[in-house]
Amino acid sequence: MAISLSVVLLLAIILVVLIRGGNIKAGPAIVAILFGFFLASTGMAPSISRFLNSIAESINSIRF
């Protein structure tokens, strides 16, 4: 849950920066948000979640 919330917050911040910077207009941003919303209710959502969790675990396991 914490990873999902962090990813959502990070993506929201990136989206706001892109809109304010003029790199993406409001229309395409709304389409991207709706796409993500409807994608979350499909059967692909668990696979996407597992993929993102594995990436987060891989990054977390890197030792410097």
TrEMBL record:
Transmembrane segment boundaries: 31-53
Keywords, comma-separated and alphabetical: Cell projection, Cilium, Flagellum, Membrane, Transmembrane, Transmembrane helix
Domain of life: Bacteria
Keyword Transmembrane attached: yes
Record flagged with keyword Transmembrane helix: yes
Name under which the protein is recorded: Flagellar biosynthesis protein FliQ
